[in-house]
Amino acid sequence: MQISFRAVRVLPKRAKAHIWIVTSETVAAGLPQISPRDLENDDFSGKAGQLYTWPNEGRIAVLAGVGPRAAVDSDKMRRAGAAIGRRMAKQNWIGVDLPDVELDGAASRRALVEGIALGGYKFLAYKSEGEPAKLSRVDIAGGAGAANAEAVELGKAVAEAQMLARDFVNEPGGTLTAPEFADRAAAVGRDRGLSVKVWDETAIADAGLGGILGVNRGSALPPRLLELAYDPPEPANGTLALVGKGIVFDAGGLSIKTGQGMMTMKCDMGGGAAVIGAMSAMSRIAPAARIRAFVPMTDNMLGGDATRPGDVLKIRNGKTIEVLNTDAEGRLILADALSLASESEPDAIIDLATLTGACMVALGPKIAGLMGNDDDWIEAVKLASEVSGERVWHLPLPADYSKQFESSVADMKNIGTPHGGALTAGLILQEFVAEGIPWVHLDIAGPAWSDSDEAEITKGGTGFGVRLLIELAKNFGHFRRQQSVGERADDSAGQPAG
Ligand code: BES
Ligand code: MN
Ligand code: ZN
User: Fold this and answer.
1) Could you give the count of Cα atoms lying within 13 Å of 45 in the half-sphere of its Cβ?
2) Which ligand minimizes its atom distance to the CA of 251?
3) SS3 at position 354
4) Parallel/antiparallel/unpaired status of strands 93-97 and 17-22
5) Residues 251/301, Cβ–Cβ less than 8 Å
6) How far is the CA of 318 from the centre of ligand 1 (A)?
7) What is the pLDDT of residues 214-259, one digit of tens each?
């Protein structure tokens, strides 16, 4: 169900629920409608994400906490929204009243809308008796002006993009095969006014995308490479390239995973899904930069002619890789995609990939590993992550670790030594980014999937990275201006004094 969100002046009389967002201070000071004892009995103190409900004049009245006034930020507001979205799934029309807090009105509204939509998300495609959420209308009180309406629209666009990514991830690998993934994503792209190109197996072979072909070799189904492009009317801010890992199911190939290890491996296209989700919102976000997206798609299976450990693949940019572990397949398909992305001569590249279990060991299930080759671009991605609330942590790319993947038969092998696997994976990817192009890699092996509901996250595919990518695209001009300032400084430093 698509929810219609709007910015309104006051709570609508006819809404089925009236919801007041409240700070801890407001609760502590006492509310006229409700006795302090009742709140206390229910352990309601106004913490972010807490709800207190009671029947009131034929309607449900709700208090939704955002915690201490001074600490209210987008995360807290999104968390409050998610609690509302979950609990109000059975109502069709709700009204929400915002408190007066430090967080500005636009950011408050955007985060609230994101939370309500994402918290109420359900994947019901295969549930014969699943109950779809009834929520169809959400009015946000406190002002119907253009700025508020725009913030509400932005929140809705972002949340819908993220839910599209979740739908893709949650779709089983046997249904969302590579050809099916490409078709569905292409349909979305066309519907949203993007340029769409689907490379089939012939085009992939003709272009020398040997990494994709090598991983696909054990599959009964052909691979795809999806290219999407957003072109603004006036591309004042250059070109940003997005790359996403699109392994629709990772069995590990002949270096097969355990049964336990492949239970969630339909999520191995989570990076690709995030890229496609973000692209689906571009015409609504309307950044002034060109955005190019590349998503290589295949499963990683064990057919009779599957890539054998010891096989050598030749990647698009001419470099060769000896495959010693077929389960390190993400870097092989990304090598081709990063080479292609580099050829499009973007001003920066970001890739998202469920790349290594090692990154989960390092950072746990909620934080993505960030690696990159350019300080300004890394800073830009970190900033976008702070705004979006999707956490990243900067990890190094130690040049001397590259020795680990020296091969005696090819330019490199596809694995390093057992420790620091997230870093060797990052270093291998770096081999396929053309010199001089700022690049960031996000290893989202942990946060692409969740085993439980929490705040705006729902169990299963999370759509991690969609909000971050949209934020990056929106602000790409800042990064570009910063770079040109940097270049001018470099130029003058090189000039003789006087
Ligand atoms: N898709 C996996 C990584 C992964 C693991 C993602 C768990 C999400 C949750 C990736 O293709 C993989 O199998 N990586 C190997 C690399 C190793 C063989 C060098 C890994 O991490 O074990
Ligand atoms: Mn693998
Ligand atoms: Zn994988």
Assistant:
1) 4
2) 2
3) coil
4) parallel
5) yes
6) 25
7) 999 999 999 999 999 999 999 999 999 999 999 999 999 999 999 9
